[in-house]
Design brief:
36% of the residues lie in helices and 19% in strands. The protein folds into 2 domains: 185 residues, Rossmann fold, CATH 3.40.50; 176 residues, Rossmann fold (3-Layer(aba) Sandwich). With 384 residues, the protein is α/β, with parallel strands linked by helices. The radius of gyration is 21 Å and the shape is globular. 41% of the residues are buried. Helix 1 links the parallel strand 1 and strand 2. Helix 1 crosses helix 14 and helix 2 runs parallel beside helix 3. Strands 3-2-1-4-5-6-7 form a 7-stranded parallel beta sheet.
Length: 384
């Protein structure tokens, strides 16, 4: 088999989504070089079995600092042949796309692919900064062979403006051997109070914390909130204080995916698939990781009816979709929930094909084959 070389440029070498994508490309048969910035306080020495080339540290929320780091890198000589002697360059996020375009221009060989799994709030801004960034993104996109994104909502509302082929790769659980989610090995959840709602992953939505804390308080023990993952303390410095003073809400620390997924998701009845972090923007268009993780373990997702996640669940005919305001509709739903109703909700999730929630090795091979078959530039818009 011809060697298929891919350079993966990461905006944050510590990001779990970066590690998952690198693992998928590796298991799909690619020979990988991984490089990029890191937002972790300590250097990252391993990304899915690869020693990355570290471009230095950048910081969440410090957009100007990240722009300067990218410019310094673009203006520096290219010293590593792996950056140009490759078949495909995948650039994760707009800042890495600028660097990827620099590498692609230095050699006629590699094709450039833009991976965007979130739409940054500045790209949706209607002011001068937003218009400038969209122009830069539009110009750079003309140099790409394809775009990878994770939600049809992003395609419909944003990326359809670009004449770039789109490959949809949803935020499914990576399970190359198909070993997890064997339904008949699980004990049944107790179908009754306390109803447990799990909020797992990157915890950054202050409005969600307030809604769930109020719900736990007023329920008198009938509802418990279990939080696992990484709280974004720059968004709510009082996170631990709110949790510690609120009866019925618990923070149980970080978790490892996929190792810990069966234990944490089988321990809750519902998954909080609501996000107000960038309300009206990215939050209205995304399909969160926890949606797929919960679905794989038959936890019932709760979402807003008016956003893309709600539309997704209604298309699948699963989950609970609620109207605003949630501080009224959510308690009303739980106050009237019966054991039979819950079992019916759970069973509908269980009947959903497992392929809806997880990627297997064949998916990885298909992705790598697609990427290494691309030609530059793409002339017409297409969906793959």
């Amino acid at each position: 088999m011809t060697e298929r070389k891919i350079l993966y440029l990461a905006h944050d070498l510590a990001d779990a989504a970066v590690h998952k994508r690198v693992a998928m490309l590796r298991d799909g048969g690619a020979t990988l070089t991984v490089a990029g910035f890191s937002r972790a306080p300590r250097p990252v020495h391993d990304v899915a079995g690869h020693v990355p080339i570290d471009f230095g540290r950048t910081y969440d929320g410090r957009f100007a600092q990240r722009i300067m780091a990218v410019l310094r890198h673009i203006l520096s000589p290219i010293r590593n042949a792996a950056f140009t002697q490759t078949d495909v360059i995948i650039a994760r996020n707009l800042e890495m796309l600028a660097i990827g375009a620099r590498y692609a221009a230095a050699s006629p060989k590699p094709v450039l692919v833009y991976e965007s799994l979130d739409i940054h709030r500045l790209l949706l801004d209607k002011g001068v900064a937003g218009r400038l960034l969209r122009r830069i993104e539009s110009w750079l996109s003309t140099k790409t062979a394809a775009l990878i994104t994770s939600s049809p909502g992003f395609i419909e509302a944003y990326f359809s403006r670009y004449a770039t082929p789109v490959r949809l790769v949803e935020n499914k659980v990576y399970d190359p051997q198909g070993k997890i989610a064997v339904k008949n090995t699980w004990p049944a959840r107790p179908a009754g109070p306390p109803w447990k709602i799990g909020w797992f992953g990157v915890i950054r939505c202050r409005k969600s914390l307030q809604i769930l804390a109020d719900l736990a308080c007023r329920s008198n023990g009938a509802v418990e909130i279990v939080i696992r993952g990484r709280p974004a303390l720059d968004q709510f410095a009082d996170f631990h204080e709110v949790v510690s003073r609120t009866p019925g809400i618990y923070y149980a620390g970080a978790y490892k995916s996929p190792d810990d997924l069966p234990a944490i998701y089988r321990d809750v009845h519902f998954i909080w698939a609501v996000d107000f972090y960038e309300e009206g923007g990215n939050s209205a268009l995304l399909l969160p990781n926890r949606l797929y993780e919960g679905g794989l373990f038959n936890a019932v997702p709760i979402a807003l009816k008016t956003v893309f996640t709600g539309r997704f669940l209604e298309r699948l005919k699963i989950g609970v979709t609620l109207e605003e305001p949630l501080h009224i509709s959510l308690p009303r739903f739980l106050d009237t929930l019966t054991a039979d109703h819950y079992r019916a909700l759970e069973e509908r999730v269980a009947q959903t094909p497992r392929a809806q929630w997880r990627h297997d090795k064949q998916d990885c091979q298909s992705l790598v084959s697609y990427l290494t078959s691309l030609q530059l530039p793409a002339k017409e818009h297409a969906y793959a």
